[in-house]
Specification:
317 residues, alpha/beta, Dihydrodipicolinate Reductase, domain 2, six-stranded parallel beta sheet, binds NADPH dihydro-nicotinamide-adenine-dinucleotide phosphate, binds N-acetyl-L-glutamyl 5-phosphate
Length: 317
């Protein structure tokens, strides 16, 4: 009898699933349950593997993720869903352990973990600590700008940009979700405890992966006037001792000597860097990470480690 943890990745052929598979393949404490290529959408075979696994990753479109959860009848099988389907479902635990010890503890005990969305991870990393600390009023009109690599759009977008039919426009940054309907808005609002959803301006650009999510704040409109140094101190205290989330030096001059905050430098890592810039009235918060790392597959693997009660950094360095 193998004493390895059994893992099934539903959607292994997709962008998120493949990254999880590649990282798990290097581990000797995990047995990956594989589905035959011609059966990867076969409901009975997926159900068999789901119910044979200790941990299931759902790396599927939302509707298929909802269906997969229904296929799970084994009370011991634990699910980590990378899709948007369960992120505001109160029966699920939100998989962002650095938000609070309560979040980490809930993940550790959970049978159902909703992995955060990529943009949402960046947004929540900046806004959640400030609402918790009473800095940001719950009804503050929060604005958020973000830039992502095109892998954030999954296989379809990767094929469009890397394929022969790439359009002229795809060579440039492209704003989207202009009508304020982006699928991450509900989780941004719910997890942070905001009265209103933020104004959100995502941009996808012509590089593979990595992102920066930015939130500007006007100090005079906060619960009281704060300096960037005070905000930096609050963020630093919030993430003290975290392995993957680091608050960088105030103003970022050492990390960004040329003054440019590139979005692609943390690609292929599970790290997240938080920056505080600005002056006594205009404060800019930025979160930099990999949309496929801390924004998807890396976070999912970190959550798995926590659920299994092992060192959360295993396989993520
Ligand atoms: N890419 C990213 O940066 C992030 C993605 N996510 C989320 O993760 C999930 C997966 O996204 P991503 O990897 O980008 O998407 P992809 O489109 O790259 O992959 C999805 C995979 O699921 C397969 N699939 C679709 N329907 C079924 C089904 N009924 N049964 C079994 N397999 C099925 C697809 O196969 P086929 O192509 O043959 O249909 C494909 O291989 C999504 O919910 C996405 O929103 C979350 C965070 C970041
Ligand atoms: C560039 C791009 O298209 N990005 C995706 C978000 C990727 C992601 O985080 O998807 P989940 O919500 O499933 O987690 C988008 O904006 O829809």
């Amino acid at each position: 009898m193998s004493n390895k943890f059994k893992v099934f990745i539903d959607g292994k052929a997709g962008t998120t699933g493949l990254k999880i598979y590649e990282r798990l393949g290097k581990r000797d404490d995990i047995e990956i349950l594989l589905i035959d290529e011609d059966k990867r959408k076969d409901t009975d075979e997926r159900a068999r593997l789901i119910n044979s696994a200790d941990i299931v990753f759902l790396c599927l479109p939302d509707a298929a993720a909802v269906e997969a959860v229904k296929l799970c009848t084994n009370p011991d099988t634990r699910i980590i869903d990378a899709s948007t389907a369960h992120r505001t479902d109160p029966a699920w635990d939100y998989g962002f352990p650095e938000l609070s010890e309560k979040h980490r503890e809930n993940i550790r005990k959970s049978k159902r973990v909703a992995n955060p969305g990529c943009y949402a991870s960046g947004f929540i990393s900046l806004v959640y600590p400030l609402i918790q600390a009473g800095v940001l009023p719950e009804d503050y009109p929060v604005t958020c700008h973000a830039v992502s690599g095109y892998s954030g759009g999954g296989n379809k977008m990767i094929d469009a940009i890397e394929g022969a039919d790439k359009t002229f426009e795809m060579n440039s940054p492209r704003q989207y979700a202009l009508a304020q309907h982006h699928k991450h808005l509900p989780e941004m609002q719910a997890v942070c405890g905001m009265k209103y959803p933020p104004m959100f301006n995502p941009i996808v650009d012509d590089y593979f992966s990595g992102m920066v999510v930015s939130v500007p704040l006007v100090s005079r409109c906060l619960n009281k006037k704060y300096t960037p140094a005070e905000i930096h101190e609050i963020m630093t205290a919030h993430y003290a001792g975290q392995h993957f989330v680091k608050v960088m030096e105030l103003g970022g001059e050492e990390t960004l000597p040329d003054g440019f905050l590139a979005a692609n430098t943390l690609a292929d890592t599970n790290n997240m860097q938080i920056f505080v810039f600005g002056n006594d009235d205009q404060i800019l918060l930025c979160s930099r990470f990999d949309n496929l790392g801390k924004g998807a597959s890396g976070a999912a693997l970190q959550n798995m480690n926590i659920m299994l009660g092992i060192d959360e950094t295993i396989g993520l360095e």
